[in-house]
Structures
1.
Amino acid sequence: MNAPKVVNNNEIYNKYLVDYPPQYIIGQQIFTKNGVAKVCGRVFKEREKTWRYSVKYESINFIMDLE
């Protein structure tokens, strides 16, 4: 029987970090049109070849996504 190929997500993520360096690092404070925010996460969008960031605004108690 042929075993399914094992996907190593860490290698894929590290390749994206090298090939497409992120604009912001996690924990960095940024200024947006809505106010001051802190980057709390990121995801790579394969189709657009860009990073999508999750940010938490300092004056609001919820997390929003920025592209």
2.
Amino acid sequence: MNETEIRNWFGNRGYPFDDNSRLRFKIFNNWIFIHDSKDEYDEVELYYLNSMFCEPQDSWDRKGFSWAKNNLLEIIKEQN
């Protein structure tokens, strides 16, 4: 998925991003880790994409969060 598709996925579920938001994200299988620069809590959130619902599975403080592939895959493994 590219950024436009991600914005549409969230928007279609009632959670649109501000047009000026900068999004940082990584997708693995049907999971997305995403940080919205306009997020008041400044968190990285995890969502399951194969769903009609837009509900975070978990979240972490952006500061100190590791975007390393191995870390993200380990987090996903813990969700299953």
